[in-house]
Amino acid sequence: GRVVEGDAWxxxxxxxxxxxxxxxxGLRLNFPNREGLRGGLAIKDIERNFKPALGYINRAxxxxxxxxxxxxxxxxxxxFLSTFxxxxxxxxxxxxxxxxxxxxxxxxxxxxxxxxDNIELRYTASKENxxxxxxxxxxxxxxxxxxxxxxxxxxxxxxxxAASFRPLSGSFSYREGDFYDGDKRTVRGDLTWRQSANFxxxxxxxxxDIELPQxxxxxxxxxxxxxxxxxxxxxxxxxxQYDNGxxxxxxxxxxxxxxxxxxxxxxxxxxxxxxFDKDNSxxxxxxxxxxxxxxTFRF
Length: 299
Description:
The protein is built from no helices and 18 strands. It has about 300 residues and is an all-beta fold.
C-alpha cells in the first residue's frame, strides 16, 4: 500500500506578543516508499524576531521551501542491487521579498552493487544572493573576496565508494563547474583501514582549485583519524588535521571511559600548531586539556 505522511507545526516564542513577528510555522508532507516513486515537500516560515526556547536557527525572517522526488529500481542481477535517480530542491527567500539562496540537485544515476559499492553522477545548480562581501581566501600578500551581487553557478560530480564492511574501504569524488563568477575543481578522497575491531585508521584529503577574476588559489585539507578500542568500555580517538589556508595543524585527542551504564568520563586534549611565517616552522598557538565525568541518578 501507499502511505502519505505529514505534519504541521506552529511555535510561538513569546505567548504575550501574539501580534509581533516572533513565530515560526511549518508544514511537511512525505510519500515514503522503499521501491519505486517517493517524494516529499516542506515549507516553513521563520519570522524576524523568532527565538526558540531550545537550540538556535541559522536564518530568521525567511521562507524555506524544500521538495524532493526520486525513483528506486531493484535489479534482477547477481552483481547489481539497485539504481536510483532523483531531484532535490531548496529555495530560501526573505519574508520581505527577494531570493537569498536556491539549490537544485539532479541525482542523474546512482548504481549500487549487492556488496554495497556504489557509483553516482549528479549535477547541482545553485543561485545565491550575496548581501555582504566576504573573504574567501587570504594569505600574507593578498585577499580574495566575493563581492555583493547575485550569482548562478552549476557543478557536476562523479563519485565512487567502497562498502565500509571491508578491511580497506573508502570513497573518491571529482567535481567541476562554475563557482560564483569563476570556476572550481575539487578532488576529494578518503580511505579507512579496519585492522581489527580494536584499531581503525582513516585518512581524508581535499584539494580545491579555484579561479576567480580576483585571482586563483589552491586549498588543501588533510586529516588523519585513529580509533583504538581497548575494550567495550574504554576507547581512544584522535584527529590530526591540516589546511594550507590557515597553516594550522590541529590535534584533538579524546579518551572515553564508560565504567557502567549511566556513567562516562572523558579526557580531551586540543592542541593547535601554526606556521605563522609560512616557512614550514610550526609553533604552538593553542592548547587545552579537559576532564569530564557524568553520572546519571535513577529514582
